[in-house]
Amino acid sequence: MWESKVDIYNVFELRGRTLCYFGVGAINKIKDIAEELKKKGVSKAIVITDEIAYTVTGAKDVVEEAFRNAGIEWTVFTDITPNPTVEQIDIATDLGKSFGAEVVVGIGGGSPIDSAKSVAILLEYTDKDATELYEQKFVPEKAKPIIAINTTHGTGTEVDRFAVASILEKDYKPALAYDCIYPTYAIDDPALMKTLPYNQTKFTAIDAINHVTEAATTLVASPYSILLAKETIRLISRYLPQALAHPDDLVARYYLLYASAIAGISFDNGLLHFTHALEHPLSALKPDLAHGLGLAILLPAVVKAIYPAVPEVLAEIYEPIVPGLKGIPGEADKVAKGIEKWLFDLGITEKLVDVGFSENDIPKLVELALNTPSLGLLLSQAPIKATEQTIEKIYRESLKPLA
Q: Would the keyword Oxidoreductase turn up in this protein's UniProt record (predicted)?
């Protein structure tokens, strides 16, 4: 395969709305970024992260040295959890305001970087809070500059305009999509992912699989989003088993990270639909549920539901996982069971009943999918009509294995 000929230590620039430095050793580019910020008059930064992402990955030492050498003061907020809340974002914003932060640095996976994007908006709109932001009570047009240092290979948030947070009192987990929260700079360094735990390695990769499954099949899908989807699934199917067996394999981490980044670009262009719209209620009700696991649980039933509408696309992009598909509507059950088997072979055997949901929860889940702010936009992009009955059927078929 051509991948073996690529020098993974050659840090290249993946250019889009965000300038992303990509490759082993890319973390050292924070030195150049800090110098550039200093030239632009930036003297204070707030770092939004969690303790593990900041210290265990080794990012802390490099970032703090770069800021120190550039003469930039910084403060650190580490109380971001998986499925971050609006309360956490408000506390971080207050810290940023009192410190006088002029730039926001997100270090970690989707939770810290999404939170950093949210803080960057609220530092500009000082009379607003995170609940107002996520309930879409106002439309932001500006944000403080954002630097995203990514430590997982799943979300793609380092190169896109999306962010997610939970409003626990309402069981909401809405999403944002604003041009002002494209990071100015991003760093994708596979070496930061060698310490990613086994399950997070799986679940973040499945997040990327879902991003492209949706982006390739929305009503606004394009040849570009489909092309990126095909390559994402090929790379993940090839390199995920290798990364699970050999966590220190930087080649495997490199291509999983690249797959995640292009998946982020794919859904930045093609948008999302069912799996994300239906997963958000799951992890809103159960914040300890890993986002990627929730997506994995729903994926087979979602593909089964949409396959008759877009069989040619799904047959092509899923060829590495379910080979021999002809791209005809009658294969829906076959491809869904094939995807489920692939997930089971990876050790992802959980279904909704295994993570604490039952038949009795389905009406509440359907209600949240239909009424949570922003999720209606995702559902409107699905290739089939997102009726209450369709949503209910997907949840119901995800309670237990299809096979």
A: yes
| Residue that terminates a domain, selected from 138, 166, 192 | 192
With 0-12 CB in 10 A as exposed, 13-18 as middle and 19+ as buried, what is 97? middle
- How far apart are alpha carbons 210 and 292 in whole angstroms? 9
Do residue 200 and residue 137 come from a single domain?
A: no
Structure tokens at 216: 């390739």
User: Cα–Cα distance between 288 and 248 in angstroms, integer?
Assistant: 27
* Alpha carbons 355 and 371: distance in angstroms, whole number: 23
The label of the residue with tokens 């490199």 reads 254
Query: What is the model's pLDDT at position 403?
Result: 80
Q: Which residue has tokens 């080794």?
A: 58
* Per-residue model confidence (pLDDT) at position 1: 72
pLDDT at 2: 83
The answer on 271 and 186 residing in a single domain is: no
Residues 215 and 188 in one domain: no
Q: What CA–CA distance (Å, rounded) separates 336 from 189? A: 33
Q: What confidence score (pLDDT) does residue 5 get?
A: 87
Average pLDDT of the chain, as a whole number: 97
Q: What is the pTM of this model?
A: 0.96
* Torsion sign over Cα 384, 385, 391, 392: negative
Please indicate, yes or no, if residue 88 is contained in any of the structural domains. Answer: yes
Domain count, the chain: 2
46 and 99 Cβ atoms separated by less than 8 Å: yes
Q: β-strand 162-164 against 175-177: which pairing, if any?
A: antiparallel
Q: Please check whether residues 151 and 102 belong to one and the same domain.
A: yes
- Concatenating the DSSP letter of every residue in 271-337 gives ---HHHHHHHHHHHH-TTS-HHHHHHHHHHHHHHHHGGGSHHHHHHHTTTTSTT----GGGHHHHHH
Nearest to 147, CA basis, from 190, 193, 178, 101:
101
Question: Which domain covers residue 384, as residue numbers?
Answer: 196-397
Neighbours of 345 (CB within 10 A): 11
Single-letter amino acid, residue 227: L
Cβ pair 164, 284 in contact under 8 A? no
Which residues of the chain fall below pLDDT 50? Answer: none
Q: Which of 192, 210, 231 is the last residue of a domain?
A: 192
Exposed, middle or buried: residue 58 (CB in 10 Å: 0-12, 13-18, 19+)? middle
